[in-house]
Design brief:
The chain is α+β, with helices and mostly antiparallel strands. It has 6 helices and 4 strands. It has helices at residues 3-95, 99-113, 125-129, 135-143, 175-181, 183-194, and strands at residues 117-122, 147-151, 162-166, 169-173. It is rod-shaped, with a radius of gyration of 47 Å.
């Protein structure tokens, strides 16, 4: 081998070693870049998954809260409807009472609502026609210390019950007015009985 061949071979060997070193460095750099990229991608994926889970939990909690709210609202609507139906049935039962029971109720209602002084009691035409003969005396016997009640001979256009008139002042004791005035108390009373 000549001197030139030896120099050429040495240059080729050094070149190959440099190329191998450069390739090895490039492979190490590529491997590191891939590892860093994977780690970054894994970290980003973990953050995305954590954010998605948090959002899913938030949406689930909101949906559950809304469903519970809707359920409570529907329950209260049904409960209110049942109580209203019971009250309506009670009102209808009162309207259908026999004469003795009906006028006993009016008597108690009058005694409870009487004011001081004399007043006129107005009934509807149907109630005037079936009024017990001793009704006025019975009421006055109970309220004589407070005042006096005179049943008006002319009917008043009311559904049922009566209206007490003290000059300019009227006390509405129609059954509808009494039920309406007692509605909250009736609901408070019926609620626990119906929904224990």
């Amino acid at each position: 081998m000549t001197g030139l061949d030896k120099i050429t071979q040495k240059i080729a060997e050094e070149s190959r070693q440099k190329v191998d070193a450069i390739l090895a460095d490039a492979n190490r750099a590529a491997t590191q870049i891939l590892a860093d990229g994977r780690a970054d991608a894994d970290a980003k994926a973990a953050r995305i998954i954590a954010d998605a889970n948090a959002e899913a939990n938030r949406i689930t909690s909101a949906a559950k809260a809304k469903a519970e709210s809707i359920t409570r609202t529907k329950y209260l609507e049904v409960k209110n409807a049942v109580v209203n139906d019971v009250i309506a049935a009670a009102f209808e039962t009162v309207e259908k009472m026999d004469d003795a029971s009906y006028f006993d109720l009016l008597y108690k209602l009058c005694v409870k609502n009487i004011e001081k002084g004399e007043c006129e009691m107005f009934l509807n035409a149907r109630d005037l026609a079936r009024l017990p003969a001793d009704f006025e005396d019975k009421i006055n016997g109970a309220v004589y210390e407070t005042g006096a009640v005179h049943v008006a001979p002319q009917p008043k256009p009311i559904e049922n019950g009566f209206v007490l008139v003290y000059g300019d002042m009227e006390v509405n004791c129609t059954l509808r007015a009494v039920f309406d005035a007692s509605m909250d108390a009736l609901k408070d009373l019926l609620g626990p009985m119906l929904f224990a």
